[in-house]
């Protein structure tokens, strides 16, 4: 065996320039996997993610996954850079405020289209591209989708986000059944509120206190905690978790 040859699995993480995507890329790299770090517009932040990863053989992949052609371009560039694909983490997402009573119709329609295009269709399209490549490789694989607690408890200020994340959960369960004969396991995580650069301002003052009080632990999650769950669901040991939607919300929303 060539000691300089790349080792580990080949992992594509969409939306990995910062936040949860960065944390997910980091946990895979730390265990010896090679990661394709995807970004849309934040190239400099994505480069910082790439530069901070343990190991070698990682690649930077830019592109807009909100349309079918863009998603195909991202997937093909990632597959070429990694030499294939073993794990896909669908993390790219839009989450913009649009409460119905306050949002003009034209803005409402545009924001729904944006959420559907990124949160749902990009997830569906990247899953198709990755799964077909995994099938051709003949060695199985893993797909992990980033869903949301909001799919279950409602998102009055972000209804398109909640709705599209519920659809992502349903998509993952459908694909889990479809892809199991090929050794491909598909699962989703449903995080509650977790701390990232994008939402740090909301954790200040009275709003921050109210958000922390949602959990009996009196805090929010870290991105690293969510990333560790993603890592496990993508592991060889987690095949029997295929089809699951894993709640990660610190007992802030319980369902049966």
From TrEMBL:
CDD domains: SDR_c
Pfam families cross-referenced by the UniProt entry: adh_short_C2
Keywords in alphabetical order: Oxidoreductase
SUPFAM superfamilies: NAD(P)-binding Rossmann-fold domains (SSF51735)
Family to which this protein belongs: Belongs to the short-chain dehydrogenases/reductases (SDR) family.
Record carries keyword Cell division: no
Protein name: SDR family oxidoreductase
